[in-house]
Hints:
Number of strands: 15
Strand content: 25-35%
Signal peptide: 1-20
Strand order of the largest sheet: 5-4-7-13-10-11
Protein name: Chitin-binding type-4 domain-containing protein
Largest sheet: 6 strands, antiparallel
Region (Disordered): 59-93
Organism: Pseudovirgaria hyperparasitica
Keywords: Signal
Amino acid sequence: MSPKSLLILTLASVLGRGIAIPFGVINNPTLEDNGTCAAGYNYYNCSNGWHGCHKEDRCSEPTISTPTPTPTPTPTSAPAQAYTSPVPEPTEINTPKIYALNPRNEHHDTQVVDHILLVTNDTDALVVFSGIPAGARDCILKWRTAALSTGRQFSCDGAGGCPVATQQLAGVPSADGNIDINPASLKQYEREEWKWKPSLDFTTWDKMEAVYGKTGPTLDCKQEVVVRLMINNEVQSQHMWGSLVLGNNAATGFYLSYIM
Length: 260
């Protein structure tokens, strides 16, 4: 009997008795009833998924893979953009209150003046910026001038030029108190960490025609910032002097900038 005829009889016998046919066997024409195979074939039931009649050992072959459905790609959203806070714009305080000081007479009382006058070893100035809010930071003393054509109040005279030194003070005597403002009364507001330091050199700046400005020293932010100014005689020779006159308005003079 041919293998094909044998398979047909075997299937009829198996189906008639209700015996389940292992997977892959029905496609193998050499499988005989009860797991017996035709001559030259062996029956294999391997853990890799192979089972049925084969001429060669199928158990050493790779595992039969079951096709898996192609996964639906998950939509990806664009990465979140990092938030960068805007850089705050500096706030300015213009036209500080100005006092003229006489360093040669420490007890000489001073008065509020409408401009800055600095003379070597003769006249210093005290500038007071008020109304700085709590929490302010990056306080910087700055200066600017209007164009020469505006008739600005700005001059630097003397062979010694106009190099300016600054010293921050911790405060100033109250205007409604019994203490006058003079070099002697200001000593209580001097601090060891706030020494005199070279800051701005106005020499020849009064000859420039255009609008321009300069950045001075960084100061400790307080609700009231007080700075004393003088001609820096340490950079002048012994017999040289300088005289500086500066206006005190929004166009020409000192101002304070800070950031909240």
